[in-house]
Amino acid sequence: MPDNQPLPQEYHVFDPERKEIRVVVIQPMRRRYWLHALLFLATIFTTLCIGARMQYSFDHNLGLFSQDLDFWPWQWVFEDWHRLLLGVPFSACILGILTAHELGHYVLCVRRGVLATLPFFIPAPTLIGTVGAFIRIKSPIRSRADLFDIGIAGPIAGFVVAVPVLIFALLASKPLTGEAAAYASGNDSLTLGLPLIFKLVHWMIAALGSHAASAQVPVHGLYLHPMAIGAWVGLFATSLNLLPGGQLDGGHIIFALNPRLHRPISLLSIVVLLPLSWFYWAGWLLWAMVLRFTGGRHPDVPLLPPLDTKRRVLAVFALIMLALTLTPAPFGDQGLGKVIQDYHKPPQQQTPSKQ
Hints:
disordered C terminus; 13 helices; 54% helix; two-stranded antiparallel sheet; mainly alpha
């Protein structure tokens, strides 16, 4: 074996069922830096394309996602590569928040001696150019404290980056007028539900006497700058990760706080998500399924020692972050109930459009 070859590592893992400690040998990981770099560069490109079209619509006061080009801007970008520069603000914001989140997990893994991969970014032809990022943990976690710290580090890092971005982005936003306002008031417009943190930051900007145009109108009357949409995506991802249950960051936090409460709280979260999926957003049904199929599995960690007081206080901050970032209707009124009702509504019963 070459001298520079990493050696296997031994981990002593507590088995809660047998109530014994077993030794787990983890072979060194094979780092695929080229794959991480390739995925990251591809995600930069896809978010630049989407961001460029958002910025073009914002600059020309067009309705956001009111044209087919807004959903599929690839050919539009290929016609003039200089248009990619328009997407820099959006791409930098969304990737900055996602990178901070994943590096928060990764750095804590390194500090606690837990083997983990670098972040994998996933490029995709979605409305934001990506479906997010993730890391993979390859070795056991030694204690409840380590599990808690690794789980909460990502949401805190992403939140800390997202809030300053949100402040600057709201200042750069403008009142809805003209064609953009007409589209936003239509039945077919894509409406983003705003979490509490958006309303608090907007209130703070107005209370401080800002002369920005965005401070003079209600937050729901704003044409959000693409950077604000990037902040919205990052904060929405934070809320999803903080859902208390399963293998999500919120589930890790709950398990570290009290392993016995992990399963009942996961089930309670599912019970809450089901009516949310019916009345507000059908996508909550998918997340309820995620919690259902991952709620029974969790990394085995020793039951002792319990978390200290500082970490329990930090868990309260995680709950505050969830309250500030959670949006029951992230894409307007798109609950299963409304979707089914609209699908079965006869054409003659549809409300005629106003002239």
